Every structure is written in structure tokens, then in C-alpha cells.
Amino acid sequence: MGAPHPLLTYFLAAADGRFPPVDGKVTVLPPLPGGLECSVAFTGHAVVATALSEKDVHAQGPDGFGASLAPDFLRHLAGPKGWIDVVDVTLTARGTGGTPRLAELTGADDHPRVRHARDVRTNVEVHGDERGLITLADGVAGRRELSIELHDVRSGGRGHGRSLIADALSLVPDGDPVFAAVSPGNARSLRAFLASGFTPTGSEVLLRPERG
């Protein structure tokens, strides 16, 4: 196993409430494994993981106050035909451990949530029950990531999302950080994660560049 990606240090520090300086600057790191890159915004500081040079990145004028997630900058990172994912809120919580409260789920390989997880993450586990399914995987920079999807989105109003997240946290060792990336427009999901003890630490977008 190689050394962890340096971006992981930023995520783990944020999970402990320690953040980069609020200086408006942008830190440039090497690209992520698997041909992926990303732009991550914390309060007043951004971190970009890319194969582009530091000089090239700074020449585009990003900053730590939001411009590192501007569409024109992200398109420059990805190249004319590269893939750019949606901008997500980055959230973190701690595992609760104990007896796992969700069984492993088989037969879900074609589920869009599972396909997406396997496209951008590694060591993907799928668990679930009649409420929905969750994926637990090694995601950006090797951090542990959780995502959920209810079978019936209308059931979210009955607390199924929150209960599914709570049970998913039992799959993570007690006290270990776990992360979730949630679209800010998905208010129902965002409320469920916040109600389950997740805390926002920043925002992020994944890219798979295609450059000449």
C-alpha cells in the first residue's frame, strides 16, 4: 500500500475541526488515483488536486472564496471534453461501531447509486433493507465515504433516511471519521444527514479530465 494522498490530511483535520488558514489562497496537490482530480473549498481556502502545474492553476485566477468552484475554472481543469461531477457539500460524522445494523445487499450491481460509487470509489460495500440501500467505500483521497438512497423517496418524510444513516454508521468502527458528499439542492437528503449528526466542512467537485 502506498502513502496516502496528501488531501486526506485536510479531510481528517476538518473532521477534527481543524481547517486551513482563511487566507483566500489555493493549495495545489497532485492528482487523485484512477485518473480523477478535484477542487475542494474550505472556508477561505481551497485545495485543488490536479496534474496541471501550480503555475497553470494559479494563472486561471481561482481563490479560496469560491472561485475555485467557478464553472470556467472547472472546465479548464477538466479540458474541453472532460467529465465534471456536480458540486457537493462535504459532510462528516463518526462511526458508532458495535453490532452492524444493516446486512450486506446482493443483486444491486445495476443500481445507479452503486454504479456511480464503483466508478469513482474503491472497495465498495453495499448494504440495505426494505428502506433503501447504502454504499460504503474508499472515496476521495482514500477517505471513507457513505451514500444512501431510499427505495421510495416519499418515505423520507417518515424518518427512513435518518434511520438508514444511523444504521449505516454502525458499519464504521466507533469514532472513525466517515464522509458524505451531498448536492446542496437535495434538501431532503441534506436535512437527513444533518439530523443524523453530520457536520458540513466545505464543498467539492470531482473531475475526470480529458486533455489534449
Automatic annotation (TrEMBL):
This is N-acetyltransferase domain-containing protein. It comes from Streptomyces gancidicus BKS 13-15. It comes from the Bacteria.
